[in-house]
Amino acid sequence: MARQINIRLVFQQRLREARLRTGLSQKDLGIEAGLDPFVASTRINRYEVGVHEPDLSLVSRLAQVLGVPTAYLFCEDDRLARLILAFDGLSIAEKERLLKSLESKKSKRKSTVKS
Amino acid sequence: MARQINIRLVFQQRLREARLRTGLSQKDLGIEAGLDPFVASTRINRYEVGVHEPDLSLVSRLAQVLGVPTAYLFCEDDRLARLILAFDGLSIAEKERLLKSLESKKSKRKSTVKS
DNA sequence: ACGGATACTACGAGTTTCGTAGCATCTAGA
DNA sequence: TCTAGATGCTACGAAACTCGTAGTATCCGT
């Protein structure tokens, strides 16, 4: 009812979106992620179009090249995606401070959120 | 140099960790995620042990049963994992407020973070 | 000691992705 | 305009992977 999100579609979109942000071509992204230059274009294209799914180790290398945490590529929720990127830019001290603040007031709210 | 994290290992650990938090057995987790009861135990076990990788649609269903965002299962960084869980418990208004605050002060810091 | 629940694994069958070899479109330069 | 290069994309058989089956081992409660 509420949520039947297609995670594969999410992955495709986040991947393409992040690649375009870096300005890389499909081929160059693949090459920088360690793929053979002769197959890089083909394979990255298939991941963005949704024909195939890459295995986790490649996903991780792609994320590194794209400058995002691996988790970012699997965010169904745009707010969560934004959060991850913003958090990524913080210093360790700032991260800890934010976590402390968030985790302290948890369980206060009952979370009447619907989605 | 710095980071050669094994994302597969991360996935295994987050999966098991989240399952134990819910108190479900490997079998029951699989069943609730829609697997045939006769293969549920076997398959979930292989994912936790790292023998095989599930496809994205199953990962998504597992995350739903476990009550975490799909992205959570791919967090290399513990701090990011904590953040995602904490963020998940906020109301939409609180999420927006937090994002606004984080995104406004971005680009102020140069992010001298090393890891 | 028994039965049941849980975690785990080898093996062949089945399903998926991979590499190859292309095609179509667009742009820049001759 | 014609060509060359870059980019995005796809069908096909081969290769690599996961799947279901059929088990084993261990622990726990009765």
How many β-strand stretches of chain A?
0
CATH class of the domain at 7-76 in chain A: Mainly Alpha
Largest sheet of chain A: none
Q: Spell the H/E element sequence of chain A.
A: HHHHHH
- CATH level-two architecture of the domain at 7-76 in chain A: Orthogonal Bundle
Q: Structural class from helices and strands of chain A? A: mainly alpha
Helical amount of chain A: 55-70%
Number of helices of chain A: 6
The residue ranges of chain A in which pLDDT falls below 50 over 5 or more consecutive positions are 109-115
Principal-axis shape of chain A: elongated
How would you portray this structure in words?
By secondary structure, chain A is mainly α. The first copy, chain A, has a domain at 7-76: 434 Repressor (Amino-terminal Domain), CATH 1.10.260.40. In chain A, 62% of the residues lie in helices and 0% in strands. The first copy, chain A, has six helices and no strands. The longest helix of chain A has 16 residues, at 7-22. The radius of gyration of chain A is 17 Å and the shape is elongated. At the A-B interface, helix 1, helix 4, helix 5 and helix 6 of A face helix 1, helix 4, helix 5 and helix 6 of B. Chain A binds a DNA duplex (30 and 30 nucleotides) through helix 3.
Sequence-ordered SSE layout with sheet pairings:
Two copies of one chain form a homodimer.
Chain A: H1 7-22, H2 26-32, H3 37-49, H4 56-66, H5 78-88, H6 92-104
The structure holds a DNA duplex (30 and 30 nucleotides).
Keywords:
disordered C terminus, mainly alpha, 115 residues, DNA-binding, 434 Repressor (Amino-terminal Domain), 62% helix, XRE family transcriptional regulator (chains A, B), homodimer, Cro/C1-type_HTH (chains A, B)
